[in-house]
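Hello Y.,

Per our agreement to keep a running log of every chain we model this quarter, I'm adding this entry. I've kept the format consistent with earlier entries: sequence first, then predicted structure.
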Amino acid sequence: MDTPSNRTQNAASCHAAKEAIMVKPTHVLSGLLVAAALAGCAAPGRSDENSRELVGAWEVTVSRPGGVGKNLLTFSSDGTFFRSGDTHPVLSGGHGSWKRSGATDFDATYVAFRFDQAGKWIGSTKTRIHITPGPASNEFKGVARVSARDLQDKEVGTSEVKLQGKRIAVEPL
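Predicted structure for the entry above:
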């Protein structure tokens, strides 16, 4: 029966249904965005399954011409690479990339900014690294060739260093 009360109830029901329909696409979109973000975290960006041997965080002992030092290296599954070390404040963190270079070996290159003792920017370093996994599965050995560059990107010095890396593992609390 078509009464004012029924029309009000029908209008309210239609309004609620419209709101439910309008909310659903935003919920679907939110769900898709969350699923895409999680898929990006879970799936490695590299198709080579063996490249994961290097993916992760490493504590690295560096034998430099001026003595022994320490670096932290992080290799991401998408081929990016990050370095921080004990040379702060005269050298910034490094950013670069890496890839498999043979059956078991890897190559990486990163760039970091150089500063003088007063904190003035004086150039950059470009470091090329060759890594060989082993002897244990959580270790690697490597060599790095460092090119110091001025503000015009002209090479002003070079050095070669030896690397020994150990994977940083999760330790239970």
